[in-house]
């Protein structure tokens, strides 16, 4: 999503720019010559990486070989830190300037990575102001462009809602954008939602991310849950509460002003290692950006139907808590910056490209 917005903004400024690499459907629609489809390589966790390791190695080799043949004027590395760590070494040997966008969350874990990135990068473009400050303190050319979600949500709110106006209170489920997340989150979310709807007379809706099959939402219809594939932002804007898998979706919900309960469950190995490495008190981006616990978080064994039902009811039955939460969400949303983040990022990329000879290939 961020890469697609960036490429579109780049092409508005430099129509002759060509780009190849790894990306999903949005980047491909924006004109990326996709050597690798990122949706088939998405992975979160530590033990989960091993399942996709052969495919990741093939993707790495394919990208490095293409870069060797074409010698692009710059490489824009968007998140995916471990994969891009290996790729960056190969690209540096080829003398290809590196631009980091959506900087890896070095402030949360493996902070030594920040020094490595600062040393390698020609330019670092961050989403949050505190990230740019970290890199500038390490001597890097870093700037905060602001978060593209501000524009994405604004545009999304202008689209029609995917379901009719609500006549009852609405609970929205965002169980995740990856199949592995659905397998861990859907059942407890759906079961808790069904119970709450029966007792509190709620309307239920769930968002199915692009590329996810309907089979990952078993029993939705029987439980009275309408599954939608578009219009997430107007749906959230009208929500009284949302169950949200930790990730970018928590920021989207914050920008929509939707009170939420954040959940996340991963493998035992990944969680155990993460607890040793992560140095921030929260897992959800909305709490991290706010710098305070705005929304409750349920992790691992606490992600179960009974706990979700209990916490969900406590929020829905407390107008004062919901009001305070909305105020905190508004504070977090303001910290994401003004509109135009992708355009500011594109200007920064062009500045780096202008020091390369042909200024046309990414």
Task: Provide a short characterization of the protein structure.
The protein is an alpha/beta fold and 362 residues long. The chain has helices at residues 2-13, 25-29, 47-51, 53-70, 81-93, 112-120, 129-137, 149-157, 179-200, 232-237, 248-255, 268-277, 285-290, 305-316, 319-334, 341-353, and strands at 20-23, 33-37, 75-78, 98-101, 123-126, 142-144, 169-174, 202-207, 225-228, 241-245, 260-264, 297-299.
Mean pLDDT: 89
Number of helices: 16
Distance between the termini: 17 Å
CATH topology of the largest domain: Rossmann fold
User: What are the segments in which pLDDT stays under 50 over at least 5 consecutive residues?
Assistant: none
CATH architecture of the largest domain: 3-Layer(aba) Sandwich
Quick one: overall form? globular
Structure report:
By secondary structure, the protein is an alpha/beta fold. The chain has 2 domains: about 1-150 and about 340-355, Glycogen Phosphorylase B (Rossmann fold); about 165-335, Glycogen Phosphorylase B (Rossmann fold, 3-Layer(aba) Sandwich), CATH 3.40.50. Helices cover about 50% and strands about 15% of the residues. It is built from 16 helices and 12 strands. The chain has a 6-stranded parallel beta sheet with strand order 9-8-7-10-11-12, with helices on both faces. Helix 6 (about 110-120) links the parallel strand 4 and strand 5. Helix 1 (about 1-15) packs across helix 16. It is globular.
């Amino acid at each position: 999503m961020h890469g697609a917005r960036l490429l579109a903004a780049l092409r508005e400024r430099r129509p002759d720019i060509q780009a190849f690499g790894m990306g999903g459907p949005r980047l491909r629609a924006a004109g990326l010559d996709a050597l690798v489809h990122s949706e088939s390589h998405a992975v979160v966790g530590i033990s989960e990486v091993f399942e996709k390791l052969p495919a990741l190695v093939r993707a790495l080799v394919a990208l490095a070989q293409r870069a060797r043949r074409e010698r692009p004027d710059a490489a824009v590395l968007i998140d995916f830190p471990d994969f891009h760590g290996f790729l960056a070494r190969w690209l540096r040997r080829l003398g290809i300037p590196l631009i980091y966008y959506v900087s890896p969350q070095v402030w949360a874990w493996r902070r030594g990575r920040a020094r490595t990135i600062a040393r390698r990068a020609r330019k670092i473009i961050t989403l949050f102001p505190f990230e740019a400050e970290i890199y500038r303190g390490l001597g890097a050319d870093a700037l905060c462009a602001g978060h593209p979600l501000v524009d994405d949500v604004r545009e999304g709110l202008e689209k029609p809602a995917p379901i009719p106006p609500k006549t009852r209170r609405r609970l929205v489920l965002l169980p995740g954008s990856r199949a592995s997340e659905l397998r861990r989150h859907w059942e407890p979310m759906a079961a808790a939602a069904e119970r709450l709807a029966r007792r509190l007379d709620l309307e239920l809706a769930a968002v199915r991310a692009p590329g996810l099959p309907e089979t990952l939402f078993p029993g939705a219809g029987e439980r009275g849950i309408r599954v939608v594939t578009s219009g997430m932002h107007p749906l959230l804007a009208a929500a009284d509460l949302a169950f949200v898998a930790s990730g970018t979706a928590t920021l989207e919900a914050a920008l929509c002003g939707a009170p939420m309960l954040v959940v996340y469950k991963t493998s035992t190995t990944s969680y155990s290692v993460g607890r040793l490495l992560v140095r921030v008190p929260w897992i959800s981006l909305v709490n991290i950006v706010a710098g305070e616990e705005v929304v409750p978080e349920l992790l691992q064994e606490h992600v179960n139907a009974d706990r979700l039902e209990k916490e969900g009811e406590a929020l829905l039955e407390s107008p004062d808590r919901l009001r305070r939460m909305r105020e905190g969400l508004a504070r977090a949303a303001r910290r994401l910056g003004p509109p135009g983040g992708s355009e500011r990022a594109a200007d920064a990329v062009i500045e780096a490209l202008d020091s390369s000879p042909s200024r046309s290939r990414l």
